[in-house]
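New to this. Help decode the following:
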Amino acid sequence: MHSATALAALGFGASVLAQQAGTLTTETHPSMSLSRCTSDGCVAEDDSIVLDANWRWTHDTDSSTNCYTGNTWDSSLCPDGTTCAQNCAVDGADYESTYGIVSDGGALTLTLKTGDNVGSRVYLLGPESENYVKFDLRNKEFAFDVDVSNMPCGVNGALYFVEMDRDGGMSEYENNKAGAKYGTGYCDAQCPQDIKFINGIANVDGWTPSTGDANSGTGSRGSCCNEMDIWEANKVSTAVTPHVCNKSGQTACTSNSTCGVGDARYDGVCDKDGCDFNPYRMGNESFYGDGKIVDTSSKFTVVTQFITGDSTDTGDLTEIRRLYKQNGNVIQQATSDISGVSGNSITDDFCKAQKTAFNDTDSFESRGGVAAMGDAFSRGMVLVMSIWDDYAADMLWLDAPYPADADTSKAGVVRGTCAADSGVPATVESDSGDASVIFSNLKVGALNSTYS
């Protein structure tokens, strides 16, 4: 589960995704190494990261006048979506001082609050810094080291893949002149409607400022695509969750029904709930956390394997496996301790049994299940890393009883040890604004090649 409205961003008084490329601030992409592995070893390539355009300062192409301030559009620059896209430029970013993003090439630190900015979201760029790196993980594994020791209740340090356009939509939409170099084109399975520009058009129509977040709002359009949440976690809880959609690639939704808003949640393009494997939710309360089997007080390695039915790189995806490595020890994923749900990996059978045991709506199976996630990888998916707090649901779905007023004796309700009143963004940002996650040692390769 990934909240669409929770990523609050402040950048020079604006949190926007624009389409023209500005020149008032130099854009320099921090380096980030990715190693590609085989049974013979790993070879590093020199990639970089780019900040999502939703966090960037956006201004009039002819001046420094904001196109969007607080959570309101400038009506003279943005009278309609097309004119706004033509009038507004997204500019370069000062990654460290404004956004708390620090990279030394092999490790990336994301800090929750830096000055007025809250949260961040970055993508992996290829060596030429013009296009996102695309991944097909069928019959492969993805590994990384992570330090969540400074990640309390209510904060999420996420690493995941989404089916974005390789160039951020630049070649397809004529009003997008910024592209992947400036972090455009985001989409996920929540069909986020807080994205300011979607498919080269400003999300001005129906724009409603948020009542809880002074820097965000929602428009009538959302940006949907398949999403593979490899890692959503803090030091209390973690979940691995595929979310699938009934459309290929990045798709704009234009109504409550297609975006899956409110009572239409299960009618939308994408499966917003996903099929999650959270060890605590699956009944293993001693597996993950400070001092537990996977000890979140220190760094560890996370490995996610994508198994195909015929053991080839082009076969149908049938299973998603998780293992960990810490202090030299390989640790298999916890096994479900929920009655009627067996195993420790994500398969269609596991998902169906889990939905039944938790009395959850099964919108995962109806959109194609695990095989649909494999189909998305066959088209290529983009790596995303982020840190955020949750204005929509206080992150309770990850680390606490959810819903907050649900009967905690019922299977699947409790997802971690955080309190039902935890995770309120104002409190999190005040008390834990220095929360941070460190991602490092990114690797992709053949099964069992990245961690031994």
